[in-house]
Amino acid sequence: MKTPGEVLREGELEKRSDSLFQLWKKKRGVLTPDCLSLFPTGPGARPKELRFHSILKVDCVERTGKYVYFTIVTTDRKEIDFRCAGESCWNAAITLALIDFQNRRALEDFRSRQERAAPVGQPEAGTARAP
């Protein structure tokens, strides 16, 4: 099982700015089991975190020449555009980490529902009882 602080991938990717000109800005990305952190290239700037609980999906993957373009869609339907070098496979790494996060969360939800549904004093389903 992955630990929350474990770094799954680290490297360079570019984020399209929200400004009028929509310029591509280089970022150092750090992918962990719970989030994608984006560090600006300039000194003193604070990193931004895209936590997986606020991400719906990785979408619109397109490969052109030397770049792979992809979009991260958040739970509030905001679309954040990225591009990376074709061989870096950031889109695949983020997608796999997101799926792993969603699976872990679904298991935790399932277990907590089972615990709430089990009557007090009754053994949990799947435990052996003496005859």
Concise summary:
Keywords: Cytoplasm, Membrane. By secondary structure, the chain is an alpha+beta fold.
Highest CATH level, the class: Mainly Beta
User: What oligomeric state is this?
Assistant: single chain
Whole-number average pLDDT?
A: 88
From the coordinates shown, what is the CATH architecture? Roll
Which word captures the global form? elongated
Share in helix: 10-25%
Radius of gyration equals 20 Å
Strand content: 35-45%
What would you note in describing this structure?
This protein has a seven-stranded antiparallel beta sheet, covered by helices on one side. The chain has a single domain (7-112), classed as Pleckstrin-homology domain (PH domain)/Phosphotyrosine-binding domain (PTB) (PH-domain like, Roll), CATH 2.30.29. The model has no long low-confidence stretch (mean pLDDT 88). The chain has one helix at residues 90-117, and strands at 9-16, 24-31, 35-40, 48-51, 55-64, 67-74, 79-85. The longest helix is centred in the last third of the chain and has 28 residues, at 90-117. It is of the alpha+beta class.
Features:
21% helix; 131 residues; seven-stranded antiparallel β-sheet; alpha+beta
In terms of topology, how is this protein built?
Elements: E1 9-16, E2 24-31, E3 35-40, E4 48-51, E5 55-64, E6 67-74, E7 79-85, H1 90-117
Antiparallel strand pairs: 1-2, 1-7, 2-3, 3-4, 5-6, 6-7
